[in-house]
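Example record

The entry below shows one chain as it appears in the dataset: sequence first, then structure tokens.
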Amino acid sequence: MSIAVGHDEGTKWDWPFQKGDGVVKVLDYEDHFEVGLEAHNFQPNEIDVKNIGEFLEIHMAHTTKDDKFGSITRSITRCYRLPKGTDPSTIKSSLDGSGILHITGNKKK
């Protein structure tokens, strides 16, 4: 008799700028959560991260940029449900030198 093997895929967020399948895994631990989103085309002043109730809103936009091929404008807004138990007052975000937007938050005790 075979026994099914369970697998917890965890929470995943769709993120259009993510390489591969456009999905990023949220690391949801007992005391905190963390996620890293690709944001290579944006500067810190072009990124806005807000907590709206039990949701996290991420907005990125930059003005039109010209290159040898023409002009380009990028803009994205996504809302995600925060992992259960997250204390909204502890949410932090930072953009590293590799263009990854790191978002973390502690869980309520």
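Notes for this example: The chain has a mean pLDDT of 87. The longest strand covers residues 32-38.
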